[in-house]
What we know:
Shape: globular
Structural class: mainly alpha
Strand order of the largest sheet: 1-4
Number of strands: 4
Distance between the termini: 55 Å
Number of helices: 12
Helix content: over 70%
Largest sheet: 2 strands, antiparallel
Amino acid sequence: LMEYLLHILIMIGIYSIVSMSLNLLAGYTGLLSVSQAAFYGVGAYTTALLSLKMGLPFWITIPAGIVVSGFIAFLIAWPALRTYDDYFVITTFAFQVIIFSILNNWVSFTGGPLGLPGIPQPVFFGLKISSHIAFLLFVGVFAMLSYFVLSRIVQSPFGRILKAIREDEVFAMSLGKDVVKFKLTAFVLSAAVASVGGSLYAQYITFIDPTSFTIMESVFILSIVIIGGAGNLRGSIAGAALLIFIPEMLRFIGMPSSIAANMRQIFYGLLLVLFMMFRPQGLLGEYSFGRHVSEPGKRGG
């Protein structure tokens, strides 16, 4: 039982990192993206391939995942950020589908549907981090580091401009701010942090395949942000804990696994609908998605 609880805490830590990264983009900048699982997957596959094929240690593979994800995000965001609102969401959806297709079909490189087994676990000063308690501490360090970095970003003048863009993009442009540049930077930073979660996931599970990085995974990460609270990093941690821990309790009431899996999906959907209806800002959020929809003149570009 203790090992199982530690496993849940590790997954909460990993999803906290990924959802905080999306919160920077969706909660603080107001850009609703459904491609976060793609960058999560890029980080995982970069770490896995460099570890398996070149034998590189985690302190090289994790930064490599950050660089690769950031570079891909830059290439995607440059054209995508010329679109607005629903069109931006559709663009990120298309990118998510493309990344999944590449991971699933480039068999000689990614292993395709068979995935990549035997990913080495991290070694720190000659000690292999393989036990659940050790990996929880390992993930905890990265989660705290991600929170620290992102909190400094959102509290900085840069972060205040992101919030201004979220609240009124036209007004931010009227102040002489290069809105596209700020949104592009936020998109790249969000992808880079998401890749860290993917790298940790790959090293923890020691096996990855494309099914872990689907559009449904992106929707799940977005659900964590919405339910936990957009525009609040602590909300992402609370949302990850809620959406991972509570459905796991279904295992302890004697429900067959085939039914429990469907019940978890029903739980996620029901919770998301209830929050959007009665508390759109989420548990700890400072921003409600869609509250500007009816404002005339919004997104005037």
